[in-house]
Amino acid sequence: MKTMLSLTLLLFHVILTTTAQDTKPAKEVAVELGKGIMLELVLVPAGQFIMGSPLTEPDREDDENQNKVVITKPFYLGKFEVTQEQWMVVMGKNPSNTKGEKLPVTNVSWDDCQEFINKLNSMNKGRFRLPSEAEWEYACRAGSTTTFSFGDKITPKDANFSRSKLNKTTPVGSYKPNAFGLYDMHGNVVEWCNDWYAKYPKEEVKDPQGPINGSSKILRGGSFSFLFTTVVRAADRFHFTPTYESYSAGLRLVREN
């Protein structure tokens, strides 16, 4: 009887353990967009961080006042910037000036990104969107509190930015990833976020989405271009109208769990 009871308890334990393991979200997922072209995403854990920059940070702007932000739920974020082949397989065209399948797509406005996302969502591959500005900075910092995710200094070995003097985009994943496993969060192309531009709130906030309306949308991360000088800090903010297009502007996707 004791033996039977022990076996029953052991089996129950195995079932519970297996079920718990099976319900854990994968750290990385890949979604086929068509023609064998994959979109890879990394699970970013929930957590909290200080958004913005300290007054002592070189090159900081006056719209980077620090505040505590809580990200209450994990989310999947593109491992890489959206590439030209990914855009092409969804949209049937490639707007980028400099062509290359593994180069980030460029010359896309915020409005263009919404059209891309709407078409992608209609393919029943999951629910996709642009990251919020808070999600973007949280993912970029990856637990760091320094100017860049890898420290307070940046060199051409760390990212594709103006001092790299390449004057063009590089294939996604050409530099080392941050602690979350995300590539090119600094430089290469500046990335559209979902939020309208506004000053940060002073109080602690949970999952901020920005104001409900405005005149310009946020971009983050800086780029290779002289237009954004050497400014590719984690806290750097840029904003342009939703119709703005640039050879140095692209996007990265969130997939909702």
Q: Can you give a write-up of this model?
A:
- With 257 residues, the chain is of the alpha+beta class.
- It has a single domain, classed as Alpha-Beta Complex (paralog of FGE (formylglycine-generating enzyme)), CATH 3.90.1580.
- 20% of the residues lie in helices and 20% in strands.
- It is built from four helices and twelve strands.
- The radius of gyration is 20 Å and the shape is globular.
**What's the CATH class label?**
Alpha Beta
Query: What is the H/E string?
Result: HEEEEEHHEHEEEEEE
Shape label: globular
Q: CATH fold name, please?
A: paralog of FGE (formylglycine-generating enzyme)
What is the strand tally? 12
Q: What is the end-to-end distance?
A: 45 Å
Catalogue the unreliable spans.
1-22
What brief labels describe this structure?
5-stranded antiparallel sheet, single chain, 257 residues, alpha+beta, 4-stranded mixed sheet, 12 strands, globular, paralog of FGE (formylglycine-generating enzyme)
Topology:
Blueprint: H1 2-23, E1 28-34, E2 37-44, E3 47-51, E4 67-71, E5 75-78, H2 84-91, H3 110-121, E6 128-129, H4 133-141, E7 190-196, E8 205-206, E9 217-220, E10 238-240, E11 249-250, E12 254-255
Question: Care to give the gist of this entry?
Answer:
With 257 residues, the protein is of the alpha+beta class.
